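Sample intake sheet
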Amino acid sequence: MAFGSFSGQEQAPMAEINTTPLVDVMLVLLVVFIVTAPVMKHAVRVELPKAEAAKLEDKQDVIRLGVTADGTLKWGEEDVARADLPDRFAAAFAKDPLTEVHVYADKEARYEHIAQTMAAAQRAGLSRIGLMTDGSE
């Protein structure tokens, strides 16, 4: 499409790009960034009050389940057979559906044992299952 005058003569098309709108947009963006940049770096120093409060204790049940390197399961401090897990999990779910299961697995434990333990808890209806780690590193 050629732009030109409305005279009846054929003229060559205009081969220039109009950069005025591009420059206008860039100048507006430059002004916006110049105005907002100092605001983003400004921090308000506030001296917060100090208060002592008692820790809020959750009254929900937590099952501490340990998986040792050889696959042995420990429910709290007592050993438990893998075949007894579904019944124990079902009883815990019947008592409180929001019961949490914290799985403490040895780093040498096979993933298969951990996955089977978590799947048994999930099949019983327990949905709050967490893998616990040692935060010392």
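Comment: The mean pLDDT is 82. The chain is about 35% helix and 15% strand.
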